[in-house]
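Limitations
The structure tokens in this dataset are predictions for the assembled complex, not deposited experimental models. Users should treat interface geometry with appropriate caution, especially where small molecules or nucleic acid strands are included. An illustrative entry is reproduced here so readers can see what is and is not provided.
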Amino acid sequence: DAGVIQSPRHEVTEMGQEVTLRCKPISGHDYLFWYRQTMMRGLELLIYFNNNVPIDDSGMPEDRFSAKMPNASFSTLKIQPSEPRDSAVYFCASSLGGYNEQFFGPGTRLTVL
Amino acid sequence: GESVGLHLPTLSVQEGDNSIINCAYSNSASDYFIWYKQESGKGPQFIIDIRSNMDKRQGQRVTVLLNKTVKHLSLQIAATQPGDSAVYFCAETPVTGGGADGLTFGKGTHLIIQP
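Predicted assembly:
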């Protein structure tokens, strides 16, 4: 298995632009998580899905952030409009079952100018 | 949720020595604890986990200890190797209703291995 796949690996955009981050979880995993990592705040959970259904989005910072999981093999995290304070590394993780090892992707490093 | 924090931001050890990384958590409802290792430019990688009905669990060269009385978690790495250099995170989540919650991560400890 290729593991969790994220794209793009790096994204540089200007303030106000729309940004879409993509994630392909490990085949067969039923949970998908989106995290954000910054030096100041560390790793923070943004949202997670179970069987493609959003379960908890309380970590999504603002309405500018949205996430979807149209099928078991694909999820997106969208920021519209983006702001410089959104600059961070965004990780996607998946797991089989809710209380088992989460496998993380390599992350997307987002820079908003 | 409540925060999970680490006592020391940086730990420097000699190659071959044992390392102990500590973590304090404040959520008394936490039932599931995990240690992750993150190397530069990579995503966190699972090391070992422990549930609240246990106080010790061993893996290959690693041991996790859980003291629920004082809400303390530690990761012991035996015979530290250069490849162990990384940032180590503890994470926790309460086990609720058969579902899942996302992990709450501590800030991390940077383990530096000296030759």
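Some entries come with short summary sentences. For this one: Chain B has a mean pLDDT of 87.
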